[in-house]
Amino acid sequence: MTFLWTGLAASWNFYSGYCGRLSIGHAAFLGIGAYATALLYANYGISPWIGILVGGALSAIVALIIGGATLRLQGTFFVLSTIAFAKILETFAITAKGITGGSLGVLIPYTPGFLNMTWSGKLPYAIIAWAYMIIVIAACVKLEKSKLGYFLKAVGENKEAAENLGVNSSRTMLKAFLISAVFTSFGGSIMAMYVMYIEPSFVMSMGNSVQFILLAIAGGLGTAFGPLVGSFILVPVTNILRGSFPSISGLHGLLLGLILIVVLLYRTNGILPALREFVDNQRRRAKNDIKS
Amino acid sequence: MEQVIQALISGILSGGIYALISVGLALIFGVVGLVNFAHGEFLMLSMYIAYWVYYFIKLEPYESLLINLVLMATVGYIVYKVIMTRVLEADHSMQMLLTLGLSMVLQNLALMLFKADYRNVRIDITTDVINIGFTNLSTARVLAFIVAIGASVALYLFLQKTYTGVAMKAVAQDGKAAKLMGINIKKIYGQAFIIGTMLVGLAGVLMSPMYSVFPTIGANFSTLAFIVVVLGGLSSIPGAIFGGILIGIVESMAGYLLGPAYQQAAYFLLFILVLIFKPSGIFGRE
After folding, report:
1. Contact flag B104-A213 (C-beta cutoff 8 Å)
2. Global ipTM
3. What is the residue-wise DSSP string for chain B?
4. I need a labelling partner for B91 at 20 to 30 A (CA). Which of A191, A280, B137, B139 fits?
5. Residue B109 with chain A: CB contacts under 8 Å
6. Cβ atoms A258, A206 nearer than 8 A
7. B94 interfaces chain A, CB cutoff of 8 Å
């Protein structure tokens, strides 16, 4: 699960982290991926491997529409529109009972096999999640060095200035939003196959969107490995908390909220940049020691 | 037809409450420039105060109004001093995430302390109705509507007529200029934040005889209030009042015509359409 969450947080980071436009509606794409895969497989017996791609394609289309419609929106407005969009999709998933099974959700049949992307052990899932994580992080690393990445950062910092320098801001934002959405959708598909059961409030809730953000921010916003650090620290911690104090519901949520506040108040950059700074300082000190 | 009118009236009545929640948010957003995602959690807090006061010392929510408002003002003051003062200069997305974190903390704290149970304040007025000829209206809702609109209008007048109010408007328009004119901005920010919190506290009191309170009740109202505020043209108080009523009507009509499941989706859709075609809000100036 840590791998999966890392991948999801990194997918979110791909767009919002680098360009600074927060999407609190990314769970919608998680939902599209999860539902596309689960429904195609449960109802028509289509292999989840194809379902993943279908979900990705669907997410791409939706991302184009939503991304295109919200391009002009700035700051607060964009954030709110992503929430609204996710809520609409969630409502659709709950009310369109004929298609999605409503709030009862979809139960994925258990027939192990490679083609069905279903196994009895956890290891294959871990490998898939791991591969997923590697791909997304690799994409982020590549993004940092690519034209798209520089454009994205430039647009995030100052849209007008970037446009004056010849950056097509709409294209840049749309492209990144689309890639981010497709990656999130892939993560949703994997999650659906791992959990074997999906329902709207599980995959599409705002809580998921907030979780992506939290992991990415705690680790380091707009850095390729930030989500990795954030997830590897926070996901196990919350799981242990959940496991050790099952009677105190809300404890892990409280902790996550507190971490979010503390990170934002004291280390606006997240854990990873803070670590880097620390290491740099140590090195510098070591050098100074040698000199003196 | 009668049912349509009934749905319409019911929508207007809920709209009053939405308006009251939203004017508090609009004030904080307009004056302090803070996007407060924890606004709904303040509402939850106020409803829990009303509930526990009723539970322990049998004071009805209306009677404990003063206690409630004082407590809410204290909460507002602490939150402002401890958290908000540090991020006044930060950019909007940081502020939003911070208040999102705050809302998570408050929500989960409530979950830990009070469990996920739905708690009701059942008093006489809960079941009381007023007959207006063809239909019955819940007394609590009518009362809530009147007080909510009254308080919103009072806030509007406060901003127009008093020195502090005008200073708030000045800060909202141009913080730097206001500072140069000798206005203590920090103080005005604090006051606006506390007034906003007290307004949502009042909304909580009015709602507690009608709605059950549970830890996540605030989440829906936060987004709802934001939508109202954006529809109303951001920092505009009259805009927030009309926006609130409009959302109430849209919600109620969608519930009547399409089914209760579509209530939320209807106003979210309206919101997205407005954002795309008229981002300055329905009642906002270009």
Report:
1. no
2. 0.74
3. -HHHHHHHHHHHHHHHHHHHHHHHHHHIIIII----TTHHHHHHHHHHHHHHHHHHH---TTTTHHHHHHHHHHHHHHHHHHTGGGGSSS-HHHHHHHHHHHHHHHHHHHHHHH-S--B----HHHH-EEE-SS-EEEHHHHHHHHHHHHHHHHHHHHHHHSHHHHHHHHHHH-HHHHHHTT--HHHHHHHHHHHHHHHHHHHHHHHTTTS-B-TTHHHHHHHHHHHHHHHTTTT-HHHHHHHHHHHHHHHHHHHHHT-GGGHHHHHHHHHHHHHHH-TT-TT---
4. A280
5. 250, 254
6. no
7. yes
CA distance A106 to B266: 25
CA angle A250, A252, A253 (to 5 degrees): 65
Kindly state the tokens that stand for B179: 């500072």
Average pLDDT over residues B37-59: 88
A chain contacts of residue B115, beta-carbon cutoff 8 Å: 249
Cβ atoms of residues B255 and A49 within 8 Å: no
Q: Which helix (H) or strand (E) holds A198?
A: strand A197-198
What is the per-residue pLDDT for B180? 79
CA neighbor of A249 nearest in space, from B50, B118, B117, B37: B117
Strand partners, B130: B137
Asked if A84 has any chain B CB less than 8 Å from its own CB, the reply is: yes
Q: What is the DSSP string of A98-165?
A: HHH-GGG-EEPP---BTTTTB-SSSHHHHHHHHHHHHHHHHHHHHHHHSHHHHHHHHHHH-HHHHHHT
Mean per-residue pLDDT of chain B: 84
Alpha-carbon torsion (B63, B67, B71, B72), positive or negative: positive
CA distance A187 to A196: 14
In single-letter form, the type of residue at position A230 comes to G
Is residue B286 over pLDDT 50? no
Do B35 and B92 touch, CB atoms closer than 8 A? yes
Percentage of chain B surpassing pLDDT 70? 96
Q: Do residues B121 and B210 make contact, with C-beta atoms less than 8 angstroms apart?
A: no
Contacts with A151 (C-beta within 8 Å, 6 or more apart), sequence order:
A162, A167, A168, A169, A172
- pTM metric for this prediction: 0.81
Among partner residues B98, B112, B261, which is closest to A254 by beta-carbon distance? B112
Whole-angstrom distance, CA of residue B280 vs CA of residue B3: 34
Mean pLDDT of B15-38: 87
**Residue A246, SS3 per DSSP:** coil
Give the model's pLDDT for residue A270. Answer: 66
Neighbours of B243 (CB within 10 A): 30
* pLDDT value at A232 more than 80: no
Look at A84 and B223 and tell me if their CB atoms are within 8 Å. Answer: yes
DSSP string, A65-83: HHHHHHTT--HHHHHHHHH
Cβ contact (<8 Å) for A254 and B219? Answer: no
